[in-house]
Specification:
The structure is a homodimer of 344-residue chains. With 344 residues, the first copy, chain A, is an alpha/beta fold. Helices cover 26% and strands 25% of the residues of chain A. Chain A is globular and about 60 Å long. Chains A, B: This is Putative alcohol dehydrogenase, zinc-binding protein.
Amino acid sequence: MTQTTTQNRQIQLAARPVGAPKAADFKLVTTPVPSAGACEVLLRTVYLSLDPYMRGRMSDAASYAAPVAVGTPMVAGTVSRVEASNNPKFAVGDWVLAYAGWQDYAVSDGTGLTKLDPNIGPLSYALGVMGMPGFTAYMGLLDIGAPKAGETVVVAAATGAVGSVVGQIAKIKGCRVVGIAGGAEKCRFAVEELGFDACIDHHSPKLPALLAAACPKGIDVYFENVGGKVFEAVLPLLNTSARVPVCGLIAHYNATTLPDGPDRTPVLMRNLLTKRIRMQGFIIFDDYGHRYPEFAKDMGQWLAQGKIKFREDIVDGLENAPQAFIGLLEGKNFGKLIVRVAND
Amino acid sequence: MTQTTTQNRQIQLAARPVGAPKAADFKLVTTPVPSAGACEVLLRTVYLSLDPYMRGRMSDAASYAAPVAVGTPMVAGTVSRVEASNNPKFAVGDWVLAYAGWQDYAVSDGTGLTKLDPNIGPLSYALGVMGMPGFTAYMGLLDIGAPKAGETVVVAAATGAVGSVVGQIAKIKGCRVVGIAGGAEKCRFAVEELGFDACIDHHSPKLPALLAAACPKGIDVYFENVGGKVFEAVLPLLNTSARVPVCGLIAHYNATTLPDGPDRTPVLMRNLLTKRIRMQGFIIFDDYGHRYPEFAKDMGQWLAQGKIKFREDIVDGLENAPQAFIGLLEGKNFGKLIVRVAND
């Protein structure tokens, strides 16, 4: 089932998931290809980004962004091609970073579109290392984490779109970098390919002891993107004046109840106080949108110099997006998860 | 039982408390008055500061400062008079801020002593509004809290040494200030005498609803000095980009076990993330010692201008220090708790 010029396949939210999303929470619907009105462009999706934050949009719990309405397409960043244009700023054939969602076609008045240069690296990088995940890694690590050479930086989801970039930037800044990832193959990749100093398999029952052994001088920056048992293992190792940027909590996203007691909130609070720890949540474009150019300049250089490597996990076919997304929340992807909706 | 020139009464830690400290955890011991050696001074305690952090020193759990050893005097900041001096920097009759502990006399080589001018306000202010508590309020609120005019600032222990100053500085900065305190009389004082916009009695079972009603625009800065149920009531009201300086957790200090479950840590983490909240612990002299002069200048002016009021709760007699301290942890004091060890 491939993309056509006559139909707009959409993957809609069919039902709000309870716990882990399942296939039946999504629905593939075929609708007519929309038309570009006055001053509008018609966009065709080529790459679709799948990211953990989308689990939050499937829920109607209060959050920083509105939930996806049931019966409408799932949201997503996309790399799209302009197929028709009534807007003088865009020409047919232009490539843009858009927010077109899980569908083949979308219409836009140009708001929020960013033109992409197909001669600079893979277009899909706009959804990964040069886009939201890379920018998240860069600002969270450098602005909130503020690592100094010789300090120890720990990041989980170490081969993922954000974690892999966090660790490599920390290496560029002269830090000891310890990753946490799911399985021996990802850990090997983090150390051998990405240059981390160590990487711990979070499936190991000895996670706390292994992490402590890998961080003999404690932890100065913990880039929090998972939560749960990883954070529990990290907390006692945090040093005085440690910084904890909080960008995601994937271990919690599918939870339907809070963990069993006791309530460990006082343990966290006491650590914050006695170790003078700074912990700060951030939402990348809300907090740092104005600093994108500085990120793009640095990251472009690091990629050109081979200082940052970026692995993509590309799944073919829009119809496979739900299963790929379900796997993302289980840690099944290996690298930035992207759906190739069309071949070009 | 008053101070003499011939004996040094000490209140020693007799046993590490389990839960709330009790009288038997302290022991009054009479020892000889020490002598000042070469380059040393003999200090006589006149005012003794009692502060919540001392509960931490009674415990041998790992913390930012070493615990008091059993069988040695409890630690404390003091206003002391130089009674004998072999140190050219100090003359007999000088008043100093010292860290002499719960005793009549102590010897010092001058390290860490700060001379006080008895012509500038009450000497005891060096232990309160012009000292550690006032400095804590000032830096925590202004540097971490960074309140802007029109924002809502919430502080608990609103009539205490720190909270009362936090709220009054926030008023100077143009904020809406909501206090939380124990009992109607303290709440009345916070509003009528200190100028808070509202103050909620934390004994009320309706604390969450009352706090929400007093903060119609949510909470932008929560100055955390208590923890526990107050923090639980605050958390859902925190606004996007709120700041939470963490200076103390008095509600937890006597706890022997964690609260019953479920484990609410994920609730806190999710709030930090989705609301992009900054939460930061600090230990005043470790983090901000170098900024004391800026505080002293501002606070000196505010006091001179009558913009800051400061209530002291003065207890007479070193022998009454244990009971006063036990009461402090129960919220029985009304204002900065100080023991007057001698009349001059």
